[in-house]
Amino acid sequence: MHVVVLLVSCSWAVILCPSVHAYENLALGKKTWQNSPVVHIDVGSTRYNLGSGRAVDGLKRDLSWNGGHCVASKHSQSTVEWRVDLGEIFSIHHILIQYVTGNKEWGVDNPYTKYFLGFSVFISNTAKKEDGMLCFRDTYFTRATIPNPINITCPYHGRYVIYYNNRTHKPYSDGYSYYASNELCEVEVYGCPSPGYYGEKCNLGCPQNCKDRHCHITNGICLGCESGYLGAKCNQECQDGLYGYNCADRCSVNCVNPEDCDQITGNCFKCQQNCQDRRCHITNGTCLGCLPGYYGEYCSIPCPQNCQDRRCHITKRTCLGCLPGYYGEICSFECPQNCLDRRCHITKGTCLGCLPGYYGEICSLECPQNCLDRRCHITKGTCLGCLSGYYGEICSLECPQNCLDRRCHITKGTCLGCLPGYYGEICSLECPQNCLDRRCQITKGTCLGCERGYVGARCNHECQDGLYGYNCADRCSVNCVYPEDCDKLTIVMSVKKNCQDRRCHITNGTCLGCLPGYYGETCSLECPQNCLGRRCHITNGTCLGCKRGYLGAKCNEECPDGLYGRNCAFKCMGCMDPGSCDKIEGDCNGIYSLL
Q1: Domains present along the chain, CATH in parentheses
Q2: Residue 374, Ramachandran bin (φ over 0: left; ψ between -120 and 50: alpha; else beta)
Q3: Largest interatomic CA distance in the chain
Q4: Which of 63, 232, 455, 571 has an alpha carbon 20 to 30 Å from 502's alpha carbon atom?
Q5: Rounded to whole angstroms, what are the CA distances from 365 to 75, 103, 508?
Q6: 205-250: pLDDT as tens digits
Q7: What values do phi and psi take at 388, rounded to 5?
Q8: Torsion angle, alpha carbons of 358, 363, 365, 370, to 10
């Protein structure tokens, strides 16, 4: 057994009854909004979403405010507002509101009844409740009598359904909460899902002459009539002599007969056949518009043949537009031949665009020869781009010779890129000599990379001791005795100070050559002292030649008596005693033979 309570105020009714299933819930899953929302709440390790969309999610099993099925608002609010956007204007029958109960019995002792009291419901075509219709405002419920859930019959058309409550005017009625609060668990808006229909099954079409096809959702009575009609179903035409919305306007006395008045616009009938829509002036019969191709008071004169779409001014004969290739008041002149698509100004004949290679008002001037694709400004003749190697307004200036591909800025002449080895606005500056491949940054001149052995923005710093190669990125071998012994250009290093040019093998440290006077793998052995020029074989130390007075592999043997000079190749002459002969110069040391 169900209890039905009928509460009537103004033009709406509130009915506490079981849910009606003849209409569809138009609010389910639609976009919502509320002021001062509580977005979510954490209960233990679970986070519950309390946003405005909870009131249209179809869930209302848990009616506690923190159960995740209901909306919540912040505390201490003077007003709360919630709305759902149905997406378009629908015919609404009733609205069901389920308020939070805390999963407790609803009644005077339920702590949430005081927050529900005093609420209002609006239907509006905008997001503002002030622009809409008040469906219901609670002014008489108490904590003991307010129903939950509550069905509100509201047979109106609208896009937004707005729930509102406030605590702004003290003193409040008995049982009201001190602050406004919004704890909606579900708002269901029932109505017809397709505009223009009514009835419990929404299968009956509204009468065709209802304004905007809007009618009452239960009885199909029009909520307004289109112009020219009246009656509950807007199926009665206006009486002769009347027209307009609800037939409220009276036709002009200039209509010959009342039945000649158009019931929608009030214009008189029986116009000339070329009048547009057969409409003419209500008193003198002159056309209010002409069919395409005609002009004149009675639209009896054909428009000029070159008018676009054969349309011309209704009284002056001048064309409203010209066919391509023509201009003038009646489109009798041909556009200049170099106009793009043969289109020109309808009155002046100046081209609206030029064929490539031409410019000027009538496209009679040729673009400069160095313009890219021979295209230039339609009025100034300045090039829209230049051939490679040229710049300037008319591309008459040559780009600097060091520009990459001879390309430069069209107006400034600054290079867009430089040949290798150059930088600067016109590529007139040479890159630093130690830049890798002589390439550097086009504006600053900083190197894009360094030759081996150098580092720095301009590659003007040698590698630090112990580093070598490109950008000093490689570390010298551990076989170098000292970091400064590493060659900063190559992978060759010096391990001993007696290596020629201080260069040695990168892996075993053996010298690639020795300074004069030294030999051995690391040039640590001195050549025999009598070697000519102190030079000897790099590995076995045999002299490459002997000083005068010596011979032998290591030049450690003096010349035999009677011989002297280099390699002991000369005989002493005139010495009484061969042993007295100087083995270097061949002198007899003062004792000569008498022979």
Answers
A1: 5-192 (2.60.120.260)
A2: left
A3: 180
A4: 455
A5: 78, 89, 80
A6: 999 999 989 999 999 999 989 999 999 999 999 988 888 888 888 8
A7: -60, 130
A8: -20
